[in-house]
Prior knowledge:
Blueprint: E1 3-8, H1 15-27, E2 31-36, H2 41-46, E3 50-53, H3 78-91, H4 94-108, E4 112-116, H5 122-129, E5 133-137, H6 160-192, H7 203-206, E6 210-213, E7 229-231, E8 257-261, H8 270-280, E9 286-290, E10 306-309, H9 314-317, E11 321-326, H10 330-338, E12 343-345, H11 352-361, E13 365-367, H12 374-386, H13 388-404, H14 409-418
Parallel strand pairs: 1-2, 1-4, 2-3, 4-5, 5-6, 6-7, 8-9, 8-11, 9-10, 11-12, 12-13
Helix pairs in contact: 3-6, 4-5, 8-12
Amino acid sequence: MSRFLFVMIEGGGNVPPQLAVARRLVARGHEVRVLGDPSLAAGAQRAGCDFAPFRHAPHQDMRSRERDLVRDWEGRSPTQRFARLGEHLFFGPLSRYTRDAAEQLADLRPDAAVVDFLVLGALPAAERSGLPYAVLVHTPFQLPVGGAVPIGLGLRPHPGLLGRTRDRLLWRMLTRMFDRGGLARLNAQRSALGLRPLAHFYEQWLTATRLLVQTSPAFDFPVRLPPNAVYVGPELEDPAWTERSSAPWEPGDARPLVLVSLGSTFQNQQGPTARLIEAVAPLPVRALVTTGGQLTPRELPSAPNVVTVSSVPHAAVLPQAALMACHGGHGSVIKALAHGVPVLSVPLGRDQLDNAARAAALGAGLTASPGSSPARLRRKLQRLLSEPQFRAAARRFAETLRAEQRTDRAVLELEALARRERAGVDASQPRGTAPAWDAFSPDLASPELRP
Length: 451
């Protein structure tokens, strides 16, 4: 059996798909250690994994408004939100993530490393180790290669010269912004580890032995994946922290069930959630609103046909649901579609516009802005409930996904990765020895963080 080191942060929706893979590896007899934020300890241990907290990197928790260090929801534009992501996650703490990952690679001596797409700083350490390592991409494909559509704007592919020009210009702008914000810091860290410099920040992800994209190619827009990338399918497990509860309605209630869920991380969702409740209140439906622990029922309006709870396993509700209204998070959208349920997406940021665009392109969803009035939201809800083509499209996708998921591609890919022969380990850094502190770019590290 093999030994794996998973590295991840607490970013909300990124965690369940990674822990689901780790749990299945453990079930197959492998040893898994999770390196991450302390708030991940209980979930990792429930999955059967050993757990080690970050010792040097800042402790992130996007499920807590107070402990969220990125606070991308404070940005007023996609550019400002991307800038906060770069400074407070990708590049600012980069050397500290590198140091944590290097120390755990030396201590555990795994057969392979598995790194969250969001933890850019762990990748130079994995690359320097010479071990095979995978990056888990828990969204549609997000790198500017192979004709991928630019991220964060909810764009669809546009054919012809106009579309290619649009995509080239937008990718160039996005790449330039991140390169200005962090390429020098990334290359300084790489140089300190004896790694070659990169021309652009995104090339760090392309150094991975494997990029495992945790969605369906039928959901994503067409893209020519790089040679190290493969779709392994989405994870549909609910987070371990969801609360089991009995149905609040009488058996035999024939009213259509609408599930409303605007995420488990804070993104200023009080207003959109309240307007969705006002939108469903006059309709002949029953609505179950889950707040993900970010809001209390006292902060939201009430209605006779609406029940508000902190959380509920989506797998327990979606088989009975006629419609899901959500923030457009990949996990929420893909779970609804996997049950043949159409989606109204109300994107609040991050990759949510992009997921909403893909659901709409499938013909299985509509999109509304978070500032939409209750009346506008109600019209979209009524369309999704009354026009059968939306549910038919969602059911077609569900059938495609069921066929894809007959093979556990993620686990098989990681098992194959662990069997690879080790290559490129520098004799001056033998297995079981972390690079010296000087390798963690003193120009990047605050003086008070040095031993």
